[in-house]
Amino acid sequence: MQKRVISMVMIIIGASLGFSYLPYLWELLKVADNTLLNNYLSNSVIGAIIFFLLSLVLAKYIVTIIKKVEKQMSEMSLTYLLFGVVGAILGLTLGVIISTPLYRIEIPVINSALPIALMAILGYLGFRVGTTRIDEWRKIFAPRPKKVEQESAVESQMLERKAEDTFRKYKILDTSVIIDGRVYDIAKTGFLEGVLLIPNFVLYELQYIADSGDSLKRVRGRRGLDILNALQKEEGITVEMYDGDFEDINEVDSKLIKLAKLLDGVVVTNDYNLNKVSEFQNVPVLNINALANAVKPVVIPGETMNVLLVKAGTERQQGVAYLDDGTMVVVEDGQHYMNEHIQVVVTSALQTAAGRMIFAKPAHSGRGINEKNDSHEQ
């Protein structure tokens, strides 16, 4: 369809050019007296035929150029195009005004080619001025509220922050961080800027987990759906859905990384492996576990705490307990106190990318050793 339109336009242009300029060609060829060849109808037909043949050769390239122009224009913002068009119109208008006296000069180049070149140059300059000074045009045309002179003076000294330079709009949530639920509390505090983006393939995975035959997975999936509903209902938190999908990619994690690259977004996750793969592919990541580890209170060796031993450790006689925030506490000789609350003394702490582990021993064992040492000294 585009090629047909291009052919029709070129035929019209060829007919008009043949009508206007072919008589001069016949005069140069000394056949101007041939009325059969040199008349309005034949000149128009010859010009139309020539440009029709040219359109058969050039139509493909013209369509390619038009598609490139359309793609570039679709990537431009409406504000950019608006100010560019206004600037170009003002430049062309100024060119017409300046070129008007040139038409009266009886020199062929000056009264024909020079006005066209002048209007083209001024139109381009107007477009450039309109698109490169968008912020200044906004300030000129934006209504300014009445303020005290002192406030306006202070405001004029403040630097304007351009959010586009450092601000990433989309925070793309993966399945693990939604099920975890802490992202809801973090978003409520305002630490997550921009828009929380939920891709459809993540929502489908949550639904699949919620419909699982395993009761544990079913509970986790329903918890994730509840968190999404709570995020959407919370005022001050912007949640959007992404309806697209990448059918050539099977893994949800790979789709998340692909989407983050396309939107220049940030992946929000709890998955250690997804975190490392995203970093390797230069995709920004916000790891909730890393944030939780960063804000955990520091545990000092020698500090005492009360814990409940819930299971045996991997090493002999070890017991394992968990703090309220999920930190694992490995207690030496803890197997003797299974399912009991005991006081332990921290001996060391190990910080890893996957979390933190605290090593401790029963408090009474330390006191017993100290008492024995004191009795020997006495």
Characterize the largest beta sheet: strand count, sense, and whether it forms a barrel.
5 strands, parallel
Sequence stretches where pLDDT stays below 50 over 5 or more residues:
147-151, 153-166, 366-378
If strands are numbered along the chain, what order do they take across the biggest sheet?
3-2-1-4-5
Order of helices and strands: HHHHHHHEHHEHHEHEHEHEEEEEH
| Mean pLDDT score | 79
Whole-number total of structural domains: 3
Would you count the extended β strands for me? 10
Dominant shape:
elongated
Question: Can you summarize this structure?
Answer:
This protein is an alpha/beta fold.
Q: What structural keywords apply?
A:
378 residues, Rossmann fold, OB fold (Dihydrolipoamide Acetyltransferase, E2P), 3 domains, five-stranded parallel sheet, 15 helices, elongated
